[in-house]
Amino acid sequence: MKQAFAFILAGSLALGACQPAAAESVVAAPSAERVAKEGSGLKTAIFAGGCFWGVEGVFSHVKGVKSAVAGYHGGTERQADYKIVSSGITDHAEAVKVTYDPKVIRYDQLLRVFFSVVADPTLKNRQGPDVGAQYRSALVPTSGEQLAVAKAYLAQMKASGKWNQPIVTGIERAQGFYPAEAYHQDFMAKNPRHGYITRWDAPKVAALKRLYPGVYSASFQRD
Asked: Which of 20, 90, 122, 136 is 20 to 30 A distant from 172 in Cα terms?
């Protein structure tokens, strides 16, 4: 991600092995057949879908989301450092821990938002201009109910025919989640004119508003 936005700010989209020529596609993912039943009280779930700025930015505009924290998931606490993770030598993925009220927004609805406007589930170890296992797309359920819903939804996606390529997004076991450095938190809200944000992430929020106006919140939920 750091290399990518450095090139963008320089006015170029030539990113070595990754040379995107168009904005990411938006797919209206299907409504979940397996509806989440999580009861009352705030719940948390972890999503990995490329650069965590955009993942956090989209979920921070979803009604019912109380917190979206950018961080690292999959590796050790010692490795949870932006420079180390960006090198691609760790098991971490850039990820976002989402805290939400299931009475307002259910887990299955968050999945629909995620696969519609946040992450392309057909890309392996990359999203947008960012390449490497640290940018993989993954669902990290934190409860048995979320796990069941995630499995059912991925199976439904594969059978839907909405994607022309195989679905490769996986489900990962929840382990240590480590918040990213302070300057990464609420990055979209703090840096709306940043080259990376305007090129890759602001369009995701616009797509959220267009596709799902009922769940879109104009205000940004800051941590």
From this structure: 20
- pTM for the full predicted model: 0.89
Structure tokens, 71? 């961080």
What's the confidence (pLDDT) of residue 2?
47
Q: Give the span between the Cα atoms of 222 and 3, in whole angstroms.
A: 26
Distance (Å, whole) CA 134 – CA 51: 9
Active site residues: 51
Cβ distance 79 to 90 under 8 Å?
A: yes
182 lies in some domain: yes
Indicate which CATH number applies to the domain containing 141: 3.30.1060.10
Is the pLDDT at 15 greater than 60? The verdict is no
Cα separations (Å) of 152 from 25, 49, 97, 156? 23, 19, 21, 6
Residues paired with 49 in a beta bridge: 137
What's the total number of domains in the chain? 1
Rounded percentage of the chain residues whose pLDDT exceeds 70: 89
Place of tokens 């019912």: 64
* Cβ(91)–Cβ(80) below 8 Å: no
Contact 161, 32 (CB under 8 A): no
